[in-house]
Structure of LLM class F420-dependent oxidoreductase:
Amino acid sequence: MADIDLGKYGVWRHYGGFTPESAAEIERLGYGTLWLGGSPGNELEMVEPLLQATTTLKVATGIVNIWSTSAKAIAESVHRIDAKYPGRFLLGVGVGHPEATAEYRSPYQALVDYLDELDQHGVPADRRVLAALGPKVLTLSTARGAGAHPYLTTPEHTREAREILGTEAILAPEQKVVLDDHADAARAIGRKTVDNPYLHLKNYVNNLKRLGFTDADIADGGSDRLIDALALHGSAAQIAAGLRAHIDAGADHVAIQVLPPKDSPIPTLSALAEVLFPH
């Protein structure tokens, strides 16, 4: 396991959606890690301002895409960040999805080759996690990294992933949430994010089918059953119970993605913090 304490809960958001001010507030609320969604560029220039504005908060990439970033350049950025803020950065890497990448060929081997390059440039295996859904990459994530950062999953997937990873590897799934106890309104928000693009990307669809969801669940923007699983909604207490289900299933850490994505996450995170981090 990586020698880095992510805390039990963190915040997942597109890398352009965090500011130093929001990072400081998220740290004050008790969250342990910021997950920079999307694929930040080679320089990872958004990381240091977030670390500078905080004292113990960790920053992780969720994820750096191997097709669009150079392993050598990423390694240089990792070393630069570690020199200034030792022990506070975790590199998440992954292959993305074929629909968005013209170069997408033999993704497993390409990921192995990328990890080989990271090794050559001195990025320790215990300072990186892999975007992993299926058994093959989950196994790779513990053989060649500190663990896994699955996206768009359920506690059932978390349980299966923990069995594959063993007891020592980091398991940090992402979970979407909508703080709204009006079910129809909350589902509409969740469905908008889940359907486009994820229900049209075969790696996510295949994983959902492995978890028991059907073609009918995935069609027409997603069934209520599917959306309720992938975008928790309700009161802060109800959402917290859904987040804890990942922990109970074997997650070390849950990366919370607040929806809608363009709204400030702080009100939802504040409400959840009162339940997740009782004084």
